[in-house]
Amino acid sequence: MTGTAPLLEVRNLRKVYRRGGLFGGGSGGGPAALDDVSLTLRPEDGKVLSIVGESGSGKTTLARIVLRLVTADSGTVSVAGEPIMAQGGRTIDNRALRKLVQPIFQNPFEAFSLQLPVEEYLFRTAINLGDAAMRRDPRPAIDEALAAVGLSYSRVAGKGIRAFSGGELQRLSVARALIARPRLIVADEPVSMVDASLRMTIVNLFKELSQKLGVAFVYITHDLSTAYYLSDVMAIMRQGALVEFGRPEAILQSPSNDYTRALLDAIPTLDRRWSI
């Protein structure tokens, strides 16, 4: 695909979770988790798209569809020009998808097993998703990924998750994602379960990686302040609909939707709301 293809293109996504009982559910549907959502992150827009909304806004459903963990009822998704979700059309296989798009989930303690040393996950990712050279010798790629997140192999070797803080485990999740050399990382509420003193460390890491390595991020959050700090482009979602989309400074200077104004008013401040 050409280098000018959008980093992420979402078109007319709709998803309704069906209501049902014990034996598979009835035909009735609840409110749409996603209701005709479309958005695009182009290379010229920047590398970080933040999707902001409260619980139930549809932002996590959107993230899971991009990761192909959930199937949309209708609509299409492509990453760097490659079809991820298409109704009746060709899509890339799962291995190609995992090389292209990598996840970072909310709880870093659930990303690794108590039974295996953390380094095992790094080696498995290199062997399963790397090229022939990486499969023959995974260590250089692992060392490079760990260095990118401020860790070293000596810190990781032979240790299980109990040896790491939540912030370190989240950085290890990022390192694991980087080994695949993806075009896009989808981070779903990645700092909500990290100690408050470490949240900006993770957010700054995303900013640095997007600038230095050129990897794009979809940052899913309910926190408008970190989204504003990190984003090149911001989407505001409410009840399955996209209510604002554009540059963060433009949205926050002149919000067009009452919901965005309410989110702004809810941010605690000492003297003023924003310095833009």
UniProtKB/TrEMBL annotation:
One of its GO terms (molecular function) is ATP binding. Residues 8-264 form the ABC transporter domain. Signal peptide: none annotated. It comes from the Bacteria. Keywords: ATP-binding, Nucleotide-binding. The keyword ATP-binding applies. The keyword Ligase does not apply. Pfam families: ABC_tran. Belongs to the ABC transporter superfamily. This is ABC transporter ATP-binding protein.
